[in-house]
Amino acid sequence: MPSNTPTSSLSQMFLIWQVFPAFAVGLLAGVLLWLSPVTSPLQLGVLFGILGLAIVSVVTFLLRHHRVMSLGIVEKQLSQLAETSSALSDSKAIVTLLGTSSVAAGWNLLAERLRERRWNESIEQSLAANAEGNSHDIVYRMARCHIDGLAITDRQGIIRFSNPAWAMMVDIDEKVNTSGQSIFEHLKLDAKAGGQDIRNRLQNTSSPSTHVVQLGRSLSDGVWRLARIPLDGRAHDPEAFVWILRDHTQQALAEEARDRFVGAATHELRTPLANILAYSETLSNAEMDADSQREFFNTISSEALRLNRLLDQLLNLQQMEAGSLTLDRAPCDVLRLIEEACDHMQPLAEKRGLKLDRRTPPNLPAMRVDKEKIISLLINLMGNAVKYTLPGGEVKLSVELQADFVRIHIEDTGIGIPEDALDKIFERFYRCQDPRTSDQVGNGLGLALAKEVALLHGGDLTVQSEINKGSRFTLHLPTGTA
Ligand code: ATP
Ligand code: MG
């Protein structure tokens, strides 16, 4: 029995009534044994009988006492449970009873159930706490691997959290702890065009706002899209702000290219149209000789072709963007297509003072290709070679026949393409800036369309180029499509 076992008034009463007679009898027997000399076996028997009774009485007391103490504990704990439920929450307050009595067994069973319930509750609580901890952890990890720059600041703009993408975009070491630094120091808005104005607007309002920040003089120096949102959604009294920084450069360049293209296309449509109208009006009004008439007709025809080409480009571009550019394949003699494209380019090359050389094998297998698209692809490649080669240069077309592929090379001795632009020239609207050919008109669409057509045929269009030496474009067409 534990030393701090509680005793009750009931058990005290039983204790007094059991201990008193047992002690009295035992004491009396002991005194008699010690004082009186033993005279006969009868006297000895009587004394031992009394002593035996005392011992039996003490043993009985102990057994009953144990049971009574158990009842006392049960009584005490039940009254505690009745007074307060806090005993339930402390599993140690429920004391296990020793012994094998049904009271002890019943009580211990009850105590065990209570303990189990408490244990289950504590597991549930720790699981819930863990789950909450995990969700914070997941959000934190998501923020860290987000491709946009993310930062959280207090209302004064002092950083409390920033992710690695943020550090990369504002050009600081991602291992540096940014906590405590000023967001405005990171953004360096004052050094950027229109940045002072953006900073004032950010400081004068706490509403959600988005700004486009140009990093240098031109769009290609970089463009950010900066958004700031009150963290708890209360625009009038935010505790903190979430800042999102996105690299907007590609989108800004594409938007600029699109605007330029719309402007150029309008101009391109208007010029041939105006020429056609002017020449046809003159033809209908004036008296002129047959040669002049033919010249006027030729001009009208070439302006109409120019118009047609531009409309084709616009249509193909729209189909390419919608993913619906398709081929109209038929078996073709590729040498005939090459001849047609070269004949088309010959006058232009001569006009520009260039030599156009053609080296083709005597025959090529028939191939299933989209005739019109392959001709305009070749015209575009030869047109580029003519446009970007200075007078006196040379443009050469050659054909190489291999087991599975026909390769058509178009080489020039022109201005060449800078190495860092070799991938970009196949992007829509991309044009290299070279003052030597700034008078050459174009939309930056020809190669994008040409590459798409080559890929649709199961082939490819590749380039090799060296600045100031020349370029070599190769169209790879699989022969197996016959
Ligand atoms: P268009 O839409 O009328 O074809 P473009 O010729 O300018 O206009 P692309 O044919 O797509 O457009 O060519 C993209 C850019 O690649 C050109 O603007 C030019 O800067 C560069 N380029 C293409 N071919 C050559 C070449 N043979 N030599 C040098 N630069 C070239
Ligand atoms: Mg072109």
Structural description of this entry:
This protein has helices at 9-35, 41-83, 86-89, 102-145, 164-169, 183-187, 195-204, 249-285, 290-322, 334-351, 371-387, 446-456, and strands at residues 149-154, 159-162, 209-214, 223-230, 240-247, 330-332, 355-359, 367-369, 394-401, 405-412, 460-466, 470-478. The protein is of the alpha+beta class and 482 residues long. The protein has four domains: 6-83; 129-247, 2-Layer Sandwich (Beta-Lactamase), CATH 3.30.450; 253-322, Signal transduction histidine kinase, dimerisation/phosphotransfer (DHp) domain (Helix Hairpins, Orthogonal Bundle), CATH 1.10.287; 330-478, Histidine kinase-like ATPase, C-terminal domain (Heat Shock Protein 90). α1 packs antiparallel against α2, α8 packs antiparallel against α9 (290-322) and α10 runs parallel beside α11 (371-387). The longest helix has 44 residues, at 102-145. The protein binds adenosine-5'-triphosphate (ATP) and magnesium ion (MG). Magnesium ion (MG) binds next to α11.
Terminal CA distance reads 101 Å
Small molecules (ligands, ions, cofactors) in the structure: adenosine-5'-triphosphate, magnesium ion
The largest sheet has its strands arranged as 2-1-5-4-3
Overall mean pLDDT score? 82
The major pleated sheet works out as: 5 strands, antiparallel
And the CATH topology of the largest domain?
Heat Shock Protein 90
Question: CATH H level of the largest domain: which superfamily?
Answer: Histidine kinase-like ATPase, C-terminal domain
Number of helices: 12
Structure summary, number of beta strands: 12
SSE arrangement, N to C = HHHHEEHHHEEEHHEHEEHEEHEE
Tally of distinct domains: 4
> Based on the structure given, which CATH architecture of the largest domain is correct?
2-Layer Sandwich
> Which percent band covers the strand fraction?
15-25%
